[in-house]
Design goal:
This protein has helices at about 5-10, 15-20, 40-55, 60-70, 80-110, 120-130, and strands at about 30, 35-40. Helix 4 (about 60-70) packs antiparallel against helix 5 (about 80-110). By secondary structure, the chain is mainly α. The two termini are about 35 Å apart. The mean pLDDT is about 90. A two-stranded antiparallel sheet has the order 1-2.
């Protein structure tokens, strides 16, 4: 398959495919005499696996660990179970973090029940009064 055909089959863009290649998650394709990239069904399967992992919020490092476990000669799936258990703990922590953010946002919203003059906006006053802390984000527990 050419990159466009792979993109259609995997329901993503060619840029996404190139990105995963550069990130080292997708192996480089073979090249023909005309220097076109040609992808196999193995590339499609790997790309689908990567995209499903990303859909579940897994970081590139987690995906790399999963791919490494798949490539190992071991017939035991315990490393994959451990990886998923750790990711579940990370998701639980992120849910708690998001619940805290929601509470802060609701408290800010209560400061300005109705629209008024911008210079007396309770939300802006509350934002200015908050102590800056580490920014939340889609951080992996592996970082």
């Amino acid at each position: 398959m050419k990159i466009g055909e792979l993109a259609v089959a995997a329901q993503c863009s060619p840029e996404t495919i190139r990105y995963y290649e550069k990130a080292g998650l997708l192996p480089p394709p073979s090249r023909a005499q005309n220097n076109y990239r040609y992808y196999s069904n193995a590339h499609l399967e790997r790309l689908r696996l990567i995209r499903n992992c990303r859909k579940l919020g897994m970081s590139h490092e987690e995906i790399r660990s999963l791919l490494h476990a798949l490539a190992s000669a071991s017939e035991n799936c315990e490393p994959i179970n451990s990886l998923l258990d750790e990711h579940i703990r990370h998701v639980d922590a992120r849910i708690r973090e998001l619940a805290n953010i929601k509470e802060e946002l609701l408290a800010l919203r209560r400061r300005c029940a109705e629209g008024g003059a911008l210079e007396r906006c309770g939300i802006i006053e509350g934002l200015n009064a908050m102590e800056p802390g580490p920014a939340p984000g889609n951080r992996s527990h592996l970082n």
